[in-house]
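Sanity check

After download, print the first record. It should look like this:
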Amino acid sequence: MSNQSIKELGEQHVMNTYGRFPVAMVRGEGSKLYDGDGKEYIDFLAGIAVTLLGHANPVLTEAITEQAKTLLHCSNYYWIEPQNQLAELLCQNSCMDKVFFCNSGAEANEGAIKLARKYSAMKYGEGRHKILTMEQSFHGRTLATLTATGQEHFHKDFLPLIEGFDYIPMNNMAAFEEKADASVCAVIIEPIQGEGGVFPLDEQVAQEMAAYCKERDILLIADEVQTGLGRTGKLFGYQTLGVEPDIMTLAKALGGGVPIGATLAKDYVAKAFVPGDHASTFGGNPLASAAGLAVMQTITQDGFMEEVNETAAYFRSKLEELVEKHPFTEDVRGKGLMLALEVGQEAKPVLKACLEAGLLLTTAGKTALRFLPALNISKEEIDEGMQRLTDVLSQVDK
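Expected structure tokens:
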């Protein structure tokens, strides 16, 4: 089907919840995508930090195919071998001890919120349930995670929101200490705010917050839905900050494109959950877990992250060259392969022009372009994408 035919079918039957571009992606290979009309695109978005191994990755494809031939689903009434193996790998490579599997980042954050409140209620009783988050943060679109999101424009039309959340400016220790009173059970951080503009959390502030939380038994929750799984140059974003969270959430890249999320916790926190407290019908089912296992086995191989960091340095250098060439661009920020280019003007028209030029990316806030390519993107694909971006920026210069 052509782009137009697919678009018309969708407009007839799919809810209007996305500001979609008038193209339909039908095939992918590596860091290239092809639409219904056969046009090629360089993918600097990776499905919003999801397809970390690229499209049609043979290792991931084989794992999914073999599992589909064996067992798709059986429910969590029974032990699931690839789920247990994935949990083991996640714990072995992080500071966490236990894992709860779900289907998305919002669900992972819902689980973290419930776990933090249950832990506090068991230990301290009622009245200690408030959770602090950062202004401009983003944690999901369920009612609880929407409330946790520190951006008012996401809240409108969905009032009343969930009671028990408050917001603090990012990288402001004094504001945090002022609000972290006896009613607070947890604080949620993003090692790098993605939706909020690709702004990293300051390392010193993160360490001071972690120490403050530890002294008062306030749980530190790291929302790693976007920063997790190698995106920042480390396996997990908290490792770039020199802190250890009590709870961590993952999704996006965990399945390489197959929906799966996870709430991880240290053992003393995880013990708060008992049978009946939390569940997910599809969470960690055999297919999703097999995909996650293939992803984790790949990115924890010797040398993989070293190659990611080499690629990230190359990618960033190319963006910095653009800043030198185009006076309206201002700076490059972020870590690893989670980067933003500040363009100093409304970014959406630039984004649209990139799409027309065969380059896929997204925005970071209102005035920056956000780059989230596959971790194994080749230098040739980077160069080709950067040339298309250069052509677009040259038109903006005129």
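If your output differs, re-run the checksum step. Summary of this record's structure: DSSP finds 14 helices and 17 strands in the chain.
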